[in-house]
Amino acid sequence: MTPTEHPAPPSTGRPGLASAEHPPSPAAVHPASPAAEHPALSSTGRPGLVSAECPPSLAAVHPASPAAEHPTPPSTGRPGLASAECPPIPAADYSAPALAEGPASPAAEHPPSPFSRRPPSLAAERPASSAAERCGLGVVGSAGGGVRELLDDELALAMDPGPRLPLGAGGLAAMRGPAMRGPAMRGPAGGGAAGGGGAVTGLPVEVCRDLRKLVVRPAGSGGRRLPGLLWIHGGGYVGGLPEHGQDFLEEMAHRLGAVIVSPDYRLAPENPYPAALNDCRDVLDWMHRHVDDVDSSQLLIGGNSAGAGLAAALALINRDQDHVPVLGQMLIYPMLDDRTVLRPADPWTGRYVWTPEQNAFGWRSVLGPDWPPGDPAIPAYAAPARATDLSGLPRAFVATGTLDLFLDENVDYARRLMRAGVPTGLHVEPGAVHGYLGMPGTRLGRKLRRTVTDTMAEWLSGR
Prior knowledge:
This protein is α/β, with parallel strands linked by helices. The chain contains 11 helices and 10 strands.
């Protein structure tokens, strides 16, 4: 890795990503640094953690929660995490409902390979009856060789048949507006400030100054010290909310017996890199230092899509600078590599849910005008696939689908983790598209959820 990609932070002299002089150190030797010690992440004049140049997202585009949940931050910038104005969360502000136990889907269970295609004569006779085909998500190539023939039928029916929102100022406003937030996310039902109340759903909302976090605890935890999971939502770096994965947060809290924290991090393009990553660093440090019922020796990080990309970046910068002990990183179809924008279109991937055009918009938004996709100066903390040294990272699990736009970058990252000596699991689901974790009504969606929770349970048990 060249020095221009990862300069050492000027204020602390801490090592860049690829430095061989500073291997990852045990937590006992390198305690977690306060948030105020986080340096700016680049030498291009971009804002660091407390810079006034990186304000929260504009309300017109990314509406903030009610004022009671988002007190106005002082003009001095974001506080350190140990601020007396950000007390630890109460021990029992929310209990996830108990879930009925169902039979586990074996991790090795795979449907027949989608590459064993039907004969052309049979494919040509099949009517275009699925939701995907009716809504123009349709067939690529000749009959029998089209991408639709590879798509899992349940996923095709589960995909939203509505029109795609055009990305851009208007599309982002619609995507982030109240209509897309859902009836349970439109405002408080009394309370909602840190440590009390919650949204209409009853979920707690913790606020540490300007950073809002959704916190879910398992039923009957009773203030016991539990494992902690920092789960980062997806949305292409330009959209999304923690509540969009609310049902899965509850499921993970129940099955893992863990406290789940999901941050409402700042979004691009209003807040380009490193704003979202700094928010996630804040929350990980907060969980490590200030949440009384979280066992700081049992912390996991993870996410889906852009959230998984942030989790991978968080693992890298935590190894190099922050040194919070993290047991594992769960990366579900992570958005890792800006260079995918420049690669030739693949006839089999990126046709559903997250397309090459959307991917280009997401990367240009988060990288900002200083770094067009493909620029060799883009740091690995912004695009983790650019990291040249993956050694010393926590164990990992990478999941993707054969029709996902991120298939190649995900498989390559998992392979490189393995070669760097990082214990890594890789799951590639035949016939699966981007976002299928959010389709629990399908067999593949349920299977992925079970695989994710079972894998993290093994990590926490020490296996």
